[in-house]
Every structure is written in C-alpha cells, then in structure tokens.
Amino acid sequence: MTSLISNSGLLSKFRGCMMGSLIGDCLGAPFEFESRVSKRILGNYLSNLLTGGSIQIFPYTDDTCMTLSVASSLVENKKVDPKDLARRFVDEFFSQPKRGYGMNVINVFHALKDTHFEDVFLPGKMQFNGSGSYGNGAAMRIAPIALFGHNKTDESLQSDVEECSRITHNHPNGYNGAILQCLAVKAALKCDSSKEFDPVDFICQLEKKMETIEMKDNSPYCESLKKIKEIYLQNQQDISSEEIAEYLGHDVSAHKSVPTAIYSFLRGMKPFSEYECLNPFVRTIYFAISVGGDTDTIASMAGSIAGAYYGIDAIPTELQERCEFKNEVDNLAYKLFDVSQEGTS
User: Fold this and answer.
1) pLDDT tens digits for 224-255?
2) In this structure, are residues 26 and 304 in contact, taking their beta carbons and an 8 Å threshold?
3) 228: domain CATH number?
C-alpha cells in the first residue's frame, strides 16, 4: 500500500495535512459538545460553504494554536525541543487566552511560567494527583511531528511524540493517543491515494505497532483498533455516527477520540446515504463532526489524516477560504516540508 511519492506529491500531502487539520478545527468548533448532531443541519452547513452561500470566516481554536506552535518550533529548531515547545505553548496561550483551552492545561501553562520553565515536564506530571492527563490535547497537535519525521523510524518518532506530549499529558493514554495519531498521519502520508486502499491492512499495521507500545493490561488503543477492524471484516461500514460515538467514543479523552478520528478518515472513503458528496475529504469532515462530542478536535485529527492521504488538491478551496489563518498555515506547511527534506537529497 506504500510507494515512492514524488517531491511535489509529498509537498501536496504536507499542505493537505496541515490544511485538513485547520479545516476540521474551524468547521467542527460550532458543533462542539453536541451529543447528537443533526444530519440535516450539518449537511446544509457544509453544502452552504461548498457552494459559496456563506462568506463567514470560522475562527480556529486551541487545537490549531498548539499545532502551529509545534510546527513553528520544528521549522526553527529542526528537532523536537521540549523547552522551546513549552515556551511557545505558554506564549501563545497568554497572547490569545480565549481560544478554548481547557482549565487543566491552563494550569500547566501557569505553572510553567511561574517556574520559569525549569522542568518543562514537571507541571504535566503533577496533573490529576500525579497520574497525568489522558486528554486528547497532545494528539490534536501532533501532525507536524509526523510530517517532519516521516523518514524516521517509528521508534525515533515515538520518542519525539512523547517529548512533545509529556509537557502537558503525562498519562500513558494521553501520550499513547498522540503516538497512534502520529502513526496514522505518517501511514496516510506514505500511501499512494491513486492506488487501491485496504482499510483492514491500514488498521492492522497500526494495531501491530501499538501492540509493542501499550501494556497488555492497559491497551485501549489496540482494543479500539480491533473494533474498527471488525467493522470492516463484518462488512458493517454503514454503521451510524451515533453508533460510532457509543462504540469508539467522542469525548475529550484521547482513547475515546483518536480511534474515532481514524475511523472517520476510513469511513469518508465511501458515500453516505444521508449526505450526497463526491469528495472523500469532505465526507471525512462530515462524518467526524456528525459523531458529536469533541467535534473540533476529532474533525481536526481526522482532517489531518485525510489531508495527508489525499493532498491539498483534494480539499475544496471553498472550505479553505472559510478558515481563519489559512494562508499562514499553508506557508508553514511549505516551511515544514523544506526542513524535512534537508539532508535527504
């Protein structure tokens, strides 16, 4: 399923990944925390955007704030630098505190600032009485690391992800969710979208990698990947978004949102009976939002995987134009691509 991809094709995938993440965040945010999203309202919402019926610019949230901080740090330092990442997260928060940050991560930012970044991992370790956070805040920002490290071994990538994640999310379910999301983006990036795609093989490859990462007595990601695999093996791809919310989850915990984002990417490859759309990227965003719950983060993660697979040309300009900061995000994708190519030619 993987193949050699030209530099122009790879650049398109970098741009698609970053733009997909932004679009999912911006367009998913208005539906955040709705337990049930009306298919009619969601379909009309997207159709209106795609036909130019709306000129509204949708603001991005903390998902994009932190993703851009990670990308900018990688471009400048050409490596994962935890202290620089922590400073960027904190500076970005205090410059734009009303982007939807959760209270727990805000506490980490205050602690980092108060301790002058002396130990950038300590405030995250202290969260939840020392158990650390297993929220999806680490997974939602991890796509740039998958892009930057697309030629690295999975072991090296895992180390980078953990360093980025543990600043705020020190629970295994928190950073393992970021690892799974990173591996999914990398796998999508390496796929040739012009060739036949095997969803079972895609999931099996992720499952095999997560089996070496998760402890046997605590393996929520392997369990969810098995559930996704069963959907395809039993030919149940018509399972509803409401059932997926129950089956895989849709809340702010990483283990109940990262697998849902991955499934949304896979589900977007097939048409829906309730929403007619020929574009699989748009279908991915539609399904991710339709699941409800933490819609901006699930759609952002799903969008980054889909964008990495399909590339920028598959993403309608009508959706790109409706997102705040879209030119800056695209420019950053170019820079990230250039940095990732250094020493590879």
Assistant:
1) 999 999 999 998 878 999 999 999 999 999 99
2) no
3) 1.10.4080.10
